[in-house]
Amino acid sequence: MSPTIHRTFDSLHVPNYRRYFAGQVVSVSGNWIQNVAAMWLMVQLTGDGLAVGLTAALQFLPLMLFGVWGGLLADRVDKRRLLIGTQIGLMVPAIVLAATTFTGTVTPLLIYAMVFLRGTAMAIDNPARQALPIELVGPERVVNAVALNSVVIQASRIIGPGIAGLLIAVVGIGWCFVVDALSFLAMIAALLRLDPEEMGEAPRATRHKGAAREGVAYVRHAPHLWIPLAMMAVIGLLSFNFQIVLPLMAHDTWEGTATTFTLLTMTMAVGSVIGALVAGTRREITPRLLVGAATLFGTFQLLAAAAPILPLQLLPLVLLGMASVTFSAGVNSTLQLGVDPAMRGRVMALYSLVFLGSTPIGAPLVGWIAGWAGPRVGLAVGGVAALAAAAGAAWAFRRVAAGEDGDPAEPGAAGVVRPVAGAGPVAGAGPVAGAAPVAGAAPGSRVVTHG
Question: Which residues are listed as membrane-spanning (predicted)?
Answer without folding.
Answer: 21-43, 49-73, 94-117, 166-192, 225-246, 258-277, 289-309, 315-335, 347-371, 377-397
